[in-house]
Amino acid sequence: MIFLMIFIKTLAIVIGFSSALVNDIYTFLFLRDFRITKKERDVFDLLANVNLTCAFILAISFLFSFIYEIDFVKEDILIATAVILLIVLINELLFRRIVVPVLANFRLNSDYMDVEQVVVLRKVGLTLNGVSVISWIYLLLIFQFGLTNDFFVTGYILGDYMFISSVTILLMNFIYRTKKTGPNLNQENNAQQI
Questions:
Q1: pLDDT grade, residue 185 (50/70/90)?
Q2: Pair 44, 29: CB distance under 8 Å
Q3: How far is it, in rounded angstroms, from Cα 6 to Cα 2?
Q4: CA 178 → CA 26, 33, 92, 155, distances in Å?
Q5: What's the CA gap between 187 and 164, in Å, rounded?
Q6: Pick from 66, 68, 65, 58: which is nearest to 17 by CA?
Q7: Alpha carbon 63 to chain centroid distance?
Q8: pLDDT tens sequence across 8-67
Q9: Cα gap 49→155, rounded to integer Å
Q10: Cβ within 8 Å of residue 148, ≥6 positions away
Q11: Global pTM value
């Protein structure tokens, strides 16, 4: 039973991390033109479903481990995992319910959305996906090393996680500023109005 739980957790973490990484890469590639096509939205929906499913499977497997094998999962590990899984869930819901639908409906000639809102949503999308990747990496680290190492205490894990997530947010914003790609929306909107 323990080996099955370990296998399920490992599989969920690896697939969740992989889909978060692919989602991050696709966000960077798809948003070069400042909009999301129907096909791109379908890819984002698929990746979000995979991430949410993996997070759910991981949460259930940790819960079963905690219920049936109290010695196997320390309380600190369970708390840290729960917090990080909650962040993964919030990230996915924000990206899927706010960023993707608005950018999918945006067209260069639309009057209802200003350019600044598109730029902010694009930056938010990149940042959310960066934090999602870091979250899955931390879940992998917790699972690999936290079960056997007494140094892993909730405060250390979550403190390090918050620090690395903050660095990721700054890094994603720096990357966004240095790699601005896509059309100059101000010039195109001004040209359409003339």
A1: very low
A2: no
A3: 6
A4: 18, 16, 25, 34
A5: 37
A6: 58
A7: 22
A8: 888 888 898 888 888 888 877 776 766 677 888 888 888 888 988 988 888 888 777 767
A9: 30
A10: none
A11: 0.74
